[in-house]
Amino acid sequence: MLYGEGIWRWRINDYLRNSNQDAFNELFGKIASYLLVRKQEAGLRIEFPKRFTIEEEVFVNASFYNSSLKPIITPKISIEVTDQKGKKYKSQFGVLGTSYKLALGKLKCGIYSWIANTNFDGKSYSKKGTFIVEDIQIEKTESNANQGVMKQLAEQSNGGSYLLNNYEKAIEDILKRKDITTISYAEKTFNDLIEYSWIFAILFILLSTEWFLRRWFGSY
């Protein structure tokens, strides 16, 4: 509990003592944070969505708060995921900033249960829950081409939409367009000659051979 009067004087006094107001701002910032999260308990918190598809990567977020409701990364958080056949998968969260994160990858369809555990200051913390992985493939939900969307995209990009039996018209329109051209790219790279030691070796051998032949035949 905080009881005070003339709090504005605290801010001025902090500046007179320290040439800044960091202590005052930190104090009241922590008070505000405490009042905002006072309904939440300290300990382990897990963010685990309830539904996934077989095409989605399963990511889990976790955090741990001490008695001051400050996030810490000291405890090691482990998790055990069990599928509907009873097969268990054990893993451990990795640290990401002031929180934890775990990637479980893509899972087969089914109902899964999980339980996360950690220990801190001699006390055990545990959270558990369930989630579902559904066999829903977005690509297969609509197998027919949406002609309306295709025409709209074509108009927005200054293009055209053609059916297969009208492919000759598509080729003709492409050939008439001046903005569709072949683009060539040239890239120049420079390498220091000194990096090619084998070239220097060959030059040295050739020059040495020339010098030796000239001396042998009396050219000098």
Brief descriptors of the model:
220 residues; alpha+beta; extended
Q: H/E order of the elements?
A: HHEEEEEEEEEEHHHH
| Apparent shape | extended
Strand content: 25-35%
Reported for the largest beta sheet, the result is: 5 strands, antiparallel
Number of domains: 3
Low-confidence stretches: none
What's the alpha carbon Rg, rounded to whole Å? 35 Å
Chain-averaged pLDDT: 83
Annotation, overall tally of beta strands? 10
Number of helices: 6
In CATH, the topology of the largest domain is named Immunoglobulin-like
Q: Approximately how much helix is present in the residues?
A: 25-40%
Care to describe what's here?
The mean pLDDT is about 85. The chain has helices at about 5-20, 20-35, 140, 145-155, 165-175, 195-215, and strands spanning about 45, 50-55, 60-65, 70, 80, 90, 95, 100-105, 110-120, 125-135. The chain contains 6 helices and 10 strands; from the N terminus they run ααββββββββββαααα. The radius of gyration is 35 Å and the shape is extended. The strands form 2 sheets. Strands 1, 3, 4, 7 and 8 form a 5-stranded antiparallel beta sheet that branches. The protein has a 5-stranded mixed beta sheet with strand order 2-10-9-5-6, with no helix packed on it. The chain has about 220 residues and is of the alpha+beta class. It has 3 domains: about 5-35, no CATH class; about 45-135, Sandwich (Immunoglobulin-like), CATH 2.60.40; about 145-175, no CATH class.
